[in-house]
Structures are given as structure tokens and as C-alpha cells.
Design a protein that fits this description.
Number of strands: 39
Helix content: 25-40%
Largest sheet: 8 strands, mixed
Strand order of the largest sheet: 1-2-3-4-5-6-8-7
Distance between the termini: 39 Å
């Protein structure tokens, strides 16, 4: 009799695209009966040794019975997955459920499970990888995916038998990070390991993900050969422009021009002097990167040619995709699917291009007419227009652009490189594949990049982005400006998951991750210039000196606005000479009472040259001893032509071929307004403080009185299908719905499991019931409505406090019903008065993209009208909780503002941590709202609480690694 699992349909959600260790991609999907011929062909390309390791005996070919067995699965007890490139298998993995005796087993039907028969939860697993793909990490990726599938099907443990000589496969299992047992019997190594993710298994998976995705970006940025497909027959056009830019930048590899319209006898494209081909098939040797500039309708044929030729990556400049409407969105989806089928990653479509200024590469596969100066800034944009603006803006900051190769060569680049030069630039357009997350993976370990600048219009995977940004920010600054902040939607070309998180919440979450979020592209460049050229400050104390008292005062005010601690400005007077600046700056850098210096300058009277002033300032900064050398310096100048360029070193002797570097090698950023310089400095101060605090991260505390198992049991009961519904019926509202709102009693019981007590409130349907309730609770009491339209609306006069006796209570009852409506509509309740304090609100909610978010603010107008609410990702640490209550603008009310008594912030922090633990331990708790929480001098009282349950959204960050699905 067939088991119930025989009826399971093909599990489409198991399909995934993954990045392998070498940066190429593969698709992982379930094996079907239609794969019989693919399996046979795959097996024929496996070496005899690998076959022996798989079957423990010579096994030259698969029998028809083998093929049937390995391609027919029930997707529950017998599952097979294949990794494919193109239309061919490169590796397979399968598991078979077994019982305690190692015999085939099946998942029992619900009737047997209800009878107390424990289902078999172990499976035997086996892999086979084509020899040509050994070392690419295919087996490791397959293990992650088959493990996730097994957990979904109720399997908790894998067993594998491996020959001792098969050390590669043993290493795949032992390195995975799962809890395991190892034994040796009868010449075979037997490995058993639990499939429950551990901290180590998650760390291993994420480390592999980082290496693979970083490598995939590296392959795009360091090609040995580039083909521009769509290079026009005549000068002009996108393709010919891209080809010209590639050559003018001095690309060190091979370049090919491809256009199917070239005459058959044309073998060279002039005046560029590069080989011309009608198709990629005519090119002898590999092509690593293809720059695609053909109409969108022709792109599929180009992608197929690239895939067949072994191209590793595509930069698709072509437009006409998702930005053009639904038909274009379908075309974009097909592009990504087709490229990944061949193991290629895609920049674009509708991209501006990519740049790598490294001396050994000099790649300008973009529409920028010049290769930027080499430097330490990595730049990512989702917009070509913003990319152009940023490149131009950095050019104007004093570094200029690299001269084209030719008679003068590139020897002069060293003198210009440094302050505002770029290491890499990627502008992805519709970012259908490669995204900002991939660049964070690459920049994290890139020794050529010290600062990461990003312009984002959408964040497709906020949870992953904040995780990667936090890790990268721990070693180098990440500065972000986000467009589409208030529209609530992503640009039309971006196919990303939607998020309900308000923009202010996104800012808080980025700040928690150490990301510096700025408001404008100008601020992005300002902060990047300072962070790339100056050391991080030790604190917020700023010395100000210059030859203008007024400009010094403006700088002083700007420091106060940004939360810095400026020292009184030092006025050198308008008669100050360059040596006066040098002397004053030397003194400020040696002063232990300041952490940074801002130099202000206006045009002076006399014959001093701008170059002399710049040299004096740079020399003072370069010569500063000890701690002075670790202080950042910025210059604010008004109408001093050439000062910014001179401070950036544009005129250094090293700019000339063969010249030695100058003694005053330290470059100083210059700003045309005090507010811009101080804002950039403030960002550096905030980042430095975050770095120091991140060295000693907080902890998620344990509380002995938390009943996690009891809460889980309560949630299971509350989410159970209605009585009489079939067992497989979804819980109310199902995934993606609003879930079920818990009753007051259920909410209080669930919160009590985590040590959160809610002050009892008794219903008062009539005055007599109100009096009886007050008698039970004890006077004084409060009388308040629970109707949604009146809840927490003290401004409508719907709450009566400090009712000391029956007479006052009855009077208040009559007033409320007369003023607001009948008692049955108001839902009046009586509650014992809590100690006086500050009314606050604590919330937690789960967003499908970002995960669980913990929020805090003061109740009423501060949070509702002014939006003064702070947010942190869950699980929150003790440090997060402390920062949360101190980061709102109205925080002084908690700490004794205007002589009031400080409240018990320690109790408030503990409450935040307990709520964080609740939603982190139980993702079914999709919303918790505690309002108001009255925080007194000692202790606090939760006066109102609500909670909502729903089946939790899928946690993509804990499952097997995969690329975003289209």
C-alpha cells in the first residue's frame, strides 16, 4: 500500500540558485523522472574512483533499475537533489528515511502518529560530484539544501557511510559545523550528525557564503579578457562608447569587439585597433567578462552565446527591462534565470557599468569617459545618474581623473591617488542579480578598499544587509544614502520584497549595524572623503582655528548642532600668514583637550600664495607627534581658489613621472561650508564611538523565570486549527496574513511566561459592576474605555484617574457614558492606580524582510505626533536596550529633567529585553504592544497589552544560502 508521502507534488520551493566557491553559480533543484537521461550522462562523466567511493565497489554504469530509483522520489521519505549548470547535472545528493535498524522507513500517517508511534527521523545521505567540479564547494552547498529539506520533512539526523580514503567527502561532513558522532566499523567510516542548526554550522555557512559571493564579484572586477558585444560599426552609440572607455582606461587584458553586423571580412575595428568578431564563437581563447550593449530583444541570444563560450559574468548596459513595465519585468526575470543557468552573474540590466582602478587591471567597463584616480574608496550605486554625479563630485574634490594611457603613460597616478580616489565602482541599474550585499561581501576583505560608499534605492534583503553591514563596519566605514525614502516603494526596475518598515526605523536599524546613513549624495561624498583620508577621532572635542572670527563661530555653532563638543574658536586674524596657521595647527594637534581640528580660511590680505597655506597645513598635520598624528583635520574655506586641490596634493611633485613623494604627504579634505565639514566630522565621531563599543558587544541576558516551553505550548494551542478542521488546515489568516489577536487573558498569560506582569483590569459593563471591581482591586482606581477608537486617547477625556471612592467612581462612569457613548460601545474597565511616573510604550513587530524589530518611545504625542521612537533589531542585547531608551529626543524626561525624579530605567531595560526574548524565541508572536508602561522611581507598571500570533514568515537567513529568487 503506498504511503501518504507518495502523493506529494513537486516541491518548487526547493529550487535555488547558489554561488559556488569559485564565484560561479549553479542551480539546485529536485530530481524528477524526466532527468533520467541527464543522470546517465552525468554518471558517464564521473571517474571510476568517484564511482567506487560512492558505491564501495566498481560500478561502471547505472542499470535501468538504478536510474528509476534515483529519479523517482516521493519528496518525503526519498528525496534527490541535483546541482546543474546549463542543462547538465554536475552533482547529486539523495536521502532515504531509515528506522532504528537502518531499514527503509516512511513518515506515518497522522492516525499512526496519534497512536503514539514515533516517526522515523533519521535518513541515510549520499553524494556524487562530477570530477571536473571537485573543489568548487558543490557538495557543501548541496548538504545545506538537503539538510533543510530533511528538516522540513521531519528528519532530524543524517547518517553517512564513507570509505576512509574518501577524505574529501569526510571533510564536507566534518566541516559543516553540525553536532556529530563518528565511528569506524568493517572498513567503513560512519558519520551521524544532527541537522538542527548550531552557532558553528550557521557561522560556517555564512563564511562560505561570504567567500563565494566575494569571489563572484572579484571575477567580474578582475577579468583577463573582455568582449564588448554590440560595439557599433561606426563611432558613437553605447557599445562603441563602452569600448572606447575600456581602451582609454588602459585595461591590461585582452579586448574584443563583437557585432553580428560586422562584414565577414572585417577582422579589426579601427581606429580602436581591436579584434572584431561577428560572434563569440570566432574568438580563440577565453572571455571572462562580456559587456552587453544590444537591444533587449537580442540579449537572450547573446547570453546563450556567452554561456556556451564559458563567459564568467555579464555587464548588461541594455535598457528595456523592468523599468519599462510588466513585459520588461518578465524579460528581466528571464535574463537572470538564463544567465544563472550558465553559471554567470549579471550586473544590470540598465547598468552604468563597473570600474576597477587597480594597477594590474585598470578596468573601465562603464559609460564613464575616464578611469577615476586609484584610491581607497569603494562606490556602489543603483543609479547611473547618481553614479555620474558622484564620480564628477569626487573629481572636483581635488584628485582629478587618471590621464589616459599613451605617450605620458600612467606613472603620474601615484601622486594623485589617495584622498578621493576609488578602488572600485559598481553601478547596477536594475540590480536584478548582483546587489549591494554582494559588494559588502567583497569589500569586507578587499585590501584595496578602506571606505564603502553606497547609494541605495531599495534594500531587497534588509536582514542580510544589516548583518553584512555590521560585519563590514567592524573593519571599515560603510556610508549609505537611500533614495525613495518617503515614496514607500522601490523604483520600477527593482524586483525586491516589500517592507512595511518606516524610513525612521530603517535609519535606526542601520545605525545599530554601524552604518553611517546620510541624507544626500553631497553628504555621502563629504563623509567618504574625510573617512578615507583622516584617522578616526578619539572623541567629540573639536578645536577650531582660522583667520575669520565669523567663520569660526559658524563652525562652532555647527559643532553644537551635530552634538560635538567644540572648544572656543581661535581667531588668527585676517593678517595671519601660512606659518601662523602651521604654528596654531601644530599646537592644537598637541593639545590633549581636543580630538579633532577644523581649520577655517578666508581670502587674506597680502601676497601669500594658496599653495603656501596648503603646504603649511599639510606639513603641520604630517609632522604632528604621538597622539596628534591620530587626530583628523578638516579645512573650511570660503572663496579661496585652488585650496582644495592643493590640500588634496594635486600639485605634488610626485604627480610628475619619477618624482619622489613630498614630505607633507598627508592630504587634508576641504569643504566650502562649515556645516558640511562638521557634518562629515560628526559622522566620523559617531562611527569611531560605534567601533569602540563594538569591541565589547553586549549580551542577551538569561532570566531564570522565563518559561519558554510553556509559552511554546500556549502558542501551539492558540494557533491550532479550529475544532473539526482537517489537520492540514492552515492557522487563522495563514502566513502573510494578520494572524489572530489574542484576548486580554491570553495576552497576559503569554507575557507572564516571560516575567512581564500586566496590571489587572476588570470589565465594568455598568456602574454597579464598576464598584464591585474597584472593591476587588482596591481604591484608588482608574476608569477607562477599551474601544479601539478611544484606547490611549487621553486627549479626548476618556480616562478618569485617582478615583478614591464609590461616589467618585459612579460620577465618573456617568460622565464618560454621557460624553462618549453607551457603556457597551466603550468597553469600560476598572484598573488599580499605578505609581506615578513617565508613560512609555514598548512594541515589537516582525517584518518579513527585516525580521523582528523592538521599538520604544514615550506614550502619546512624543511618539504618535512627533515620531520620537527608537528601534533595534531582535535579539536585543543589554547594550541595545540601554541605547534604545537613551536615543529618543525626549529621553531627558526619564533622567530627571527640570528637577523631576529620575525613573527606574534599569527596570525599563529589563522589560525591553524580556519582550525581545519573547519574540526572538517564538517567531509566531508577530506583534506585541505594551501601552502605556508607567515607569516610576522604583519599578514600572504595564497598564495595557496586546499580542498577535501568526505562522512565522520564512527565515531566509537561517536556511541554506541562495541567491534571491526570481
Amino acid at each position: 500500500m503506498p504511503s501518504p508521502s507518495d502523493h506529494h507534488a513537486y516541491p518548487t520551493h526547493w529550487e535555488a540558485d547558489v554561488v559556488l566557491r569559485d564565484g560561479g553559480t549553479a542551480q539546485i533543484r529536485p530530481i524528477t523522472p524526466d532527468d533520467a537521461q541527464r543522470l546517465v550522462s552525468f554518471y558517464e562523466h564521473v571517474s571510476d574512483e568517484s564511482k567506487y567511493y560512492r558505491f564501495f565497489a566498481p560500478y561502471p554504469r547505472l542499470s535501468d533499475r538504478d536510474v528509476h530509483r534515483f529519479t523517482h522520489h516521493d519528496y518525503v521519505d526519498r528525496v534527490g537533489l541535483a546541482a546543474t549548470v546549463g542543462d547538465e547535472f554536475i552533482a547529486t545528493v539523495r536521502f532515504d528515511r531509515i528506522d532504528e535498524n537502518g531499514l527503509p522507513a516512511h513518515l506515518p500517517p497522522p492516525s499512526e502518529a496519534d497512536a503514539g508511534r514515533a516517526p522515523a527521523d533519521e535518513a541515510e545521505v549520499a553524494f556524487l560530484v562530477q570530477d571536473a567540479h571537485h573543489g568548487r564547494g558543490v557538495a557543501s552547498a548541496l548538504l545545506e539544501h538537503i539538510g533543510a529539506v530533511a528538516r522540513e520533512r521531519g528528519i532530524r539526523r543524517f547518517a553517512a557511510e564513507v570509505l576512509p580514503a574518501n577524505t574529501k567527502m569526510i571533510k564536507v561532513f566534518t566541516d559543516a559545523g553540525y553536532t556529530q558522532k563518528r565511528s569506524f566499523d568493517d572498513g567503513v567510516v560512519r558519520l551521524e550528525f544532527d541537522l538542527e542548526p548550531t552557532d558553528r554550522s550557521v557561522a560556517v555557512m555564512r563564511a562560505r557564503e561570504q567567500r563565494a559571493e566575494a569571489r563572484s564579484v572579484q571575477r567580474l572586477l578582475t577579468p583577463g579578457s573582455v568582449a564588448v558585444i554590440g560595439a557599433g560599426r561606426a563611432p558613437g552609440g553605447v557599445g562603441r562608447t563602452a569600448l572606447r572607455n575600456l581602451l582609454d582606461g588602459g585595461f591590461t587584458g585582452r579586448v574584443h569587439a563583437v557585432n553580428h553586423a560586422f562584414p565577414e571580412d572585417r577582422t579589426r575595428l579601427d581606429p580602436e585597433g581591436v579584434p572584431a568578431h561577428r560572434s563569440l564563437r570566432e574568438i580563440d581563447g577565453p572571455v571572462d567578462l562580456a559587456v552587453v550593449a544590444v537591444p533587449a530583444a537580442q540579449v537572450p541570444a547573446v547570453v546563450a552565446d556567452c554561456g556556451e563560450h564559458g563567459v564568467q559574468g555579464l555587464v548588461v548596459l541594455s535598457a528595456g527591462y523592468a523599468e519599462s513595465g510588466p513585459e520588461g519585468r518578465d524579460r528581466q526575470r528571464d535574463l537572470v534565470r538564463q544567465a544563472r543557468t550558465y553559471g554567470m552573474r549579471v550586473i544590470g540590466p540598465n547598468a552604468f557599468g563597473i570600474i576597477n582602478t587597480a594597477e594590474g587591471v585598470r578596468l573601465n567597463a562603464s559609460l564613464s569617459p575616464r578611469l577615476p584616480v586609484p584610491g581607497r574608496i569603494g562606490l556602489f550605486t543603483q543609479s547611473g545618474a547618481i553614479g555620474i554625479a558622484l564620480l564628477s563630485g569626487l573629481h572636483r574634490r581635488g584628485a582629478g581623473l587618471a590621464r589616459p594611457t599613451g605617450a605620458e603613460g600612467t606613472a603620474g597616478l601615484g601622486g594623485l591617488a589617495g584622498m578621493v580616489g576609488l578602488s572600485t565602482f559598481v553601478s547596477t541599474g536594475n540590480r536584478a542579480d548582483v546587489s549591494g550585499n554582494d559588494l559588502l561581501q567583497y569589500w569586507y576583505e578587499d585590501p584595496e578598499t578602506d571606505v564603502a560608499l553606497m547609494y541605495l534605492e531599495s534594500i531587497g534583503n534588509p536582514r542580510k544587509f544589516t548583518r553584512l553591514a555590521r560585519r563590514t563596519a567592524a573593519v571599515k566605514p560603510v556610508v549609505v544614502v537611500k533614495g525613495a525614502r518617503h515614496s514607500g516603494s522601490a523604483p520600477t526596475g527593482h524586483a525586491v520584497p516589500t517592507t512595511r518598515i518606516p524610513d525612521a526605523t530603517v535609519s535606526d536599524l542601520l545605525r545599530q549595524a554601524g552604518v553611517l546613513r546620510v541624507d544626500t549624495v553631497t553628504q555621502l561624498a563629504d563623509a567618504g572623503v574625510l573617512l578615507a583620508s583622516q584617522p578616526l577621532p578619539d572623541g567629540p572635542r573639536v578645536a577650531i582655528l582660522g583667520n575669520s572670527e565669523s567663520l569660526g563661530l559658524l563652525t562652532y555653532d555647527a559643532c553644537l548642532t551635530e552634538g560635538l563638543s567644540p572648544l572656543p574658536p581661535r581667531d588668527l586674524t585676517t593678517a595671519a600668514a601660512p606659518e601662523d596657521f602651521h604654528h596654531a595647527l601644530t599646537g592644537a594637534l598637541g593639545d590633549d583637550t581636543c580630538d579633532a581640528v577644523v581649520v577655517t580660511a578666508i581670502p587674506w590680505v597680502g601676497d601669500a600664495r594658496t599653495a603656501d597655506l596648503a603646504a603649511a597645513v599639510r606639513r603641520a598635520a604630517a609632522e604632528a607627534p604621538g597622539r596628534g598624528a591620530a587626530k583628523p583635520v578638516a579645512v573650511v574655506h570660503l572663496e579661496v581658489p585652488g585650496l582644495a586641490e592643493a590640500l588634496a596634493g594635486a600639485g605634488d611633485p610626485a604627480s610628475e613621472p619619477g618624482a619622489a613623494p613630498p614630505a607633507e604627504a598627508r592630504r587634508i579634505p576641504a569643504y566650502p561650508a562649515a556645516e558640511r565639514a562638521v557634518r562629515a566630522l560628526a559622522e566620523a565621531v559617531r562611527y569611531a564611538r560605534w567601533r569602540r563599543e563594538a569591541e565589547e558587544p553586549g549580551r542577551v541576558p538569561e532570566y531564570d523565570d522565563i518559561d519558554e516551553a510553556g509559552a511554546a505550548a500556549d502558542i501551539e494551542v492558540l494557533l491550532a486549527p479550529p475544532q473539526g478542521a482537517p489537520p492540514e488546515a492552515p492557522a487563522p489568516d495563514g502566513p502573510g496574513g494578520t494572524g489572530i489577536e489574542l484576548s486580554a487573558a491570553d495576552t497576559q498569560r503569554l507575557l507572564a511566561r516571560y516575567g512581564v506582569s500586566v496590571l489587572p483590569a476588570l470589565p465594568a459593563p455598568d456602574p454597579d459592576a464598576a464598584v464591585r471591581a474597584a472593591g476587588r482591586l482596591g481604591y484608588p482606581v482608574a476608569l477607562k474605555p477599551t474601544a479601539p477608537r478611544l484606547r490611549h486617547r487621553t486627549d479626548l477625556g476618556g480616562v478618569r484617574l485617582d478615583l478614591g471612592g464609590e461616589t467618585e467612581l459612579r460620577r465618573a462612569y456617568a460622565e464618560l457614558t454621557a460624553h462618549l457613548g453607551p457603556a457597551e460601545e466603550l468597553g469600560l474597565v476598572v484598573q488599580r492606580m499605578a505609581p506615578r511616573g513617565v508613560d512609555t510604550v514598548v512594541r515589537a513587530a516582525i517584518d518579513p524582510g527585516a525580521g523582528a524589530v523592538l521599538s520604544f518611545g514615550l506614550a502619546g504625542a512624543p511618539s504618535e505626533l512627533l515620531g520620537d521612537t527608537a528601534h533595534r533589531l531582535v535579539p536585543a542585547t543589554d547594550r541595545d536596550a540601554a541605547e534604545l531608551i537613551r536615543s529618543i529626543r525626549t529621553a531627558p524626561l526619564l533622567f530627571g529633567w527640570r528637577g523631576s525624579h529620575p525613573v527606574d530605567t534599569a527596570a525599563l531595560e529589563e522589560l525591553l529585553l524580556r519582550v525581545s526574548r519573547l519574540v526572538d524565541d517564538h517567531p509566531e508572536v508577530v506583534a506585541v504592544d505594551l501601552e502605556p508602561v508607567v515607569v516610576a522611581q522604583r519599578g514600572l507598571s504595564v497598564l495595557g497589552a496586546s499580542a498577535r500570533l501568526a505562522p512565522p514568515p520564512v527565515r531566509t537567513d537561517l536556511g541554506p544560502r541562495h541567491l534571491p529568487a526570481y
